[in-house]
Amino acid sequence: MSLFQSEYEVKVPFEDLDPMNVVWHGNYMRYMEQARCDMLSKLKYNYNNMRHDGYFYPIAKMDVKYIKSATFEDILVIKTELISIEPAINIKYSISNKQTGEKIFEGSTMQIGIDMNTKESLYVPPQGLVDAVKGVSNEKI
Questions:
Q1: SS3 sequence of the chain
Q2: Separation between Cα atoms, residue 82 and residue 31, nearest integer Å
Q3: Is 79 exposed, middle or buried (CB count within 10 Å of its CB: 0-12, 13-18, 19+)?
Q4: Could you tell me if residue 8 is inside a domain?
Q5: Is the pLDDT of residue 137 over 70?
Q6: Is residue 38 part of a domain?
Q7: Residue 74: inside a domain, yes or no?
Q8: Average pLDDT for residues 96-106, to the nearest whole number?
Q9: What residues contact residue 90 under an 8 Å CB cut-off, 6+ apart?
Q10: Mutual angle of helices 127-136 and 27-43, in 10-degree steps
Q11: Residue 129 belongs to what domain range?
Q12: Percentage of the chain surpassing pLDDT 90?
């Protein structure tokens, strides 16, 4: 069960291609990050809010699975799904080609909360994040 879901689109630019004319594998992480930032903005608790509240949320774990290549000018739909926020933020990603509907990539990230002052790990999410999730729980944007 997800706490929140979002979609984000990106049109593959020429500079994202490798010498084989497909999207270089490392760019999928950038697409994931763009979609994650978009989802947090829609949630109304983004990285600026976290910093304001005194917390960092670095990536601690990432899993990816490449299914099929994307190419120049493909429109990619990145679906993000917020799975949990305690004790870490866990997000699933699914990237599909909008034109064909084919899934081309899936992945997940785990982000650990860190207190900016003490540099200690958090085991309870900040109240601002809890409130944001409660405000939109199960809402699809």
A1: CCCEEEEEEEECCHHHECCCCCECCCHHHHHHHHHHHHHHHHHCCCHHHHHHCCEECCEEEEEEEECCCCCCCCEEEEEEEEEECCCEEEEEEEEEECCCCCEEEEEEEEEECEECCCCCECCCCCHHHHHHHHHHCCCEC
A2: 16
A3: middle
A4: yes
A5: no
A6: yes
A7: yes
A8: 98
A9: 82, 83, 84, 108, 109, 110, 111
A10: 80
A11: 4-134
A12: 93
Indicate the average pLDDT of the chain. Answer: 95
The residue with tokens 């799975």 is 83
Q: What CATH number is associated with residue 17? A: 3.10.129.10
pTM exceeds cut of 0.90: yes
Nearest partner of 46 among 99, 82, 83, 10, judged by Cα: 82
Structure-block tokens of residue 23: 């999207």
Q: Report the number of distinct structural domains present in the chain.
A: 1
Residue 59 in domain: yes
Per-residue tokens: 62 = 């990432």
